[in-house]
Amino acid sequence: MTTEQTIQDVAMIARNGIDRVIELERENKRLAEALANANEQAERFEREWYLRGDEIERLQEVSDEMFAAMTAALLLAPHSSGAYGVLNEAIKNIQPKWIRHGEVTS
């Protein structure tokens, strides 16, 4: 009976070991899929981050061009024209904040 009990104990230990190996393989597969998903999301975020940076640079260039065009128009507009005040106010509104910061409003 001891031999039979020992065989049953060994069989149970082997079954438990096999079940644990199967469980660990499933967990390993799940973690590998989660890692692949996380890597894909990180790559997508990085691409979007760089695209946003490119778009910000493009918009800054457009803003600089617009500012330059409006400044040129302001310089050419007679002070007595209605356009002068409108252009002057528009330029003040789009100036970089570090330029406007020093202004004293009355």
TrEMBL record:
Coiled-coil ranges (or none): 21-48
Keywords: Coiled coil
Domain of life: Bacteria
Name of the protein this chain belongs to: Nucleotide pyrophosphohydrolase
Keyword Coiled coil: yes
